[in-house]
């Protein structure tokens, strides 16, 4: 049985026989009071979310036994996302809700991990770092040397990230899929 | 990487800007207290007795000492020696506290003023926040944004439907605090929450009107807890009783026991002047006034996990 010390984002646990993923968790401690962890959980089968506040040290559930399988994202059609196992050529389908936040950073032919619970695909995990193209950002201004300044840039997936001023349209950048933040420019 | 290139990175620029911002806040805080006749003091970080708080865990430093969880007891010794107005800015350390509003090491502003109670301390706290905001913020806290005042009973009665001072239930109190009260406070720009249940008195004086509540308050800016203040307990017998109660409570929860601070108690027995004290998290204040969402956003060393 896991307790609150194991809580972190993306932890998969079994609560009352259902697999849940921790979407968000936050340490809170009112002044002179005991500590809690405020969590948002998503049911990996139904997609339903619930908020739960655990007292520090409280039991939260069993670690979920999830099988991971390396697959390639093939295409999306009508809100259904198709992935293929590159060795067996077996294909599986997930809906947008199951793909979740990964939608912000996933492009066709990307290698991902598909999670299976009791043989059913329930979620995917992206690599920590992915390369994505910039499709829309303000052009860099020559001579603008304010260090640390950033500007918004739209990725080919439609998601917007903040990038340094020297990044231009058409360039590729590395994004950290866990934080959604810019990491570096891809060297040409 | 070439040092000249490293210094132009987005992160380096952000940290340099943060050095300026933090310097402005610290300067404004020190100016405020010196203008009011306060003396800056420095108390030990390495201590034998880290304080007996039911829910605060100290970090051990070697076999017999701890990193200070707060400068409270040492500063009160100076008050016992006759210091009338003292303040300090010091790191404080608490084990197992890590989150968007918590770090194991954080910067604390603590001050004590003899001859006043918590009501006067509320006004001084408001004056400090307004002074610091006017000196540091591009958009200072508007003079017409009132610092609301809400008693704990009123807060719970209106949002959770019960009065903690009438019927005490610690479990329910903190669960409701986390689930109901804190989200509610997030909708108020500035509010002083006062008159806590006697069970949460820590080292504050009980109200002369009823022993069900204590003279303690906390300030919240947009729901973020900024400081914790009391009319200080001065009665030596009550000090002994509170320390013993805390020690028993800690033992019942299986928490490590810390020694009673006998040096502090000796000075209190010789006579502690009436005073009010306040402990304020400087990182949290900067977060609230700059709109930062995570304590790392105002840290010069965000990568350091502590």
Q: Cα distance, first to last residue of chain A? A: 49 Å
Classify the helix fraction of chain B into a percent range: 25-40%
Overall number of domains of chain B = 1
Radius of gyration of chain A: 20 Å
Task: Tell me the number of strands of chain B.
Answer: 11
Describe this structure in words.
The complex is a heterodimer of chains A (188) and B (306). Chain A is mainly beta and 188 residues long. In chain A, a hairpin with a 6-residue loop joins strand 8 and strand 9. The longest helix of chain A is centred in the middle third of the chain and has 4 residues. Chain A starts with a strand and ends with a strand. In chain A, 24% of the residues are buried. Chain B is α+β, with helices and mostly antiparallel strands. Chain B has a single domain, classed as BirA Bifunctional Protein, domain 2 (2-Layer Sandwich), CATH 3.30.930.10. In chain B, a hairpin with a 2-residue loop joins strand 9 and strand 10. The longest helix of chain B is centred in the first third of the chain and has 26 residues. Chain B is globular, with a radius of gyration of 20 Å. The two termini of chain B are 27 Å apart. The chains are: A mainly beta (188), B alpha+beta (306). Chains A and B meet through strand 3 of A and helix 2 and helix 6 of B.
């Amino acid at each position: 049985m896991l307790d609150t010390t194991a809580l972190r984002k993306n932890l998969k646990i079994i609560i009352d026989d259902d697999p849940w993923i921790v979407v968000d968790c936050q340490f809170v401690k009112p002044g002179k009071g005991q500590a809690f962890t405020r969590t948002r959980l998503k049911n990996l089968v139904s997609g339903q979310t619930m908020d739960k506040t655990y007292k520090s040290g409280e039991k939260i559930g069993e670690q979920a036994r999830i099988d991971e399988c390396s697959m390639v994202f093939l295409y999306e059609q009508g809100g259904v996302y198709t992935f293929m196992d590159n060795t067996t050529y077996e294909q599986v389908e997930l809906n947008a809700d199951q793909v979740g936040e990964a939608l912000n950073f996933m492009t066709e032919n990307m290698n991902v991990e598909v999670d299976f619970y009791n043989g059913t695909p329930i979620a995917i995990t992206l690599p920590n770092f992915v390369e994505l193209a910039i499709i829309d950002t303000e052009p860099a201004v020559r001579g603008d040397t304010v260090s640390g300044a950033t500007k918004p840039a739209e990725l080919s997936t439609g998601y917007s990230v903040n990038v340094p001023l020297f990044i231009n349209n058409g360039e590729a950048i590395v994004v950290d899929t866990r934080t959604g933040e810019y990491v570096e420019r891809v060297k040409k | 990487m070439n040092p000249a290139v490293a210094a132009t990175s987005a992160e380096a620029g952000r940290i340099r800007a943060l050095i300026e911002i933090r310097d402005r806040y610290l300067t404004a805080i020190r100016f405020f207290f010196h203008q009011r006749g306060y003396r800056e003091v420095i108390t030990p970080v390495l201590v034998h007795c880290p304080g007996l708080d039911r829910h605060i865990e100290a970090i051990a430093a070697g076999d017999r000492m701890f990193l200070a969880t707060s400068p409270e007891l040492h500063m009160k010794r100076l008050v016992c020696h006759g210091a009338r107005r003292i303040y300090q800015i010091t790191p404080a350390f608490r084990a197992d506290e890590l989150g968007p509003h918590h770090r194991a090491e954080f910067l604390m502003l603590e001050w004590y003023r003899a001859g006043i109670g918590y009501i006067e301390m509320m006004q001084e706290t408001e004056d400090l926040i307004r002074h610091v905001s006017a000196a540091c913020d591009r958009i200072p806290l508007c003079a017409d944004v009132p610092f609301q005042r809400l008693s704990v009973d009123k807060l719970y009665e209106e949002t959770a439907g019960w009065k903690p001072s009438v019927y005490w239930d610690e479990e329910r109190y903190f669960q409701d605090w986390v689930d109901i009260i804190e989200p509610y406070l997030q909708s108020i720009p500035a509010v002083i929450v006062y008159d806590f249940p006697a069970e949460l008195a820590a080292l504050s004086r009980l109200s002369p009107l009823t022993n069900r509540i204590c003279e303690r308050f906390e300030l919240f800016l947009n729901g973020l807890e900024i400081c914790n203040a009391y009319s200080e307990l001065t009665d030596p017998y009550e000090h002994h009783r509170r320390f013993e109660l805390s020690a028993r409570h800690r033992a019942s929860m299986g928490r490590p026991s810390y020694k009673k601070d006998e040096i502090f108690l000796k000075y209190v027995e010789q006579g502690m002047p009436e005073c009010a004290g306040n402990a304020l998290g400087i990182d949290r204040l900067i977060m609230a006034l700059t709109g930062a969402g995570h304590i790392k956003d105002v840290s010069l060393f965000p990568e350091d996990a502590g």
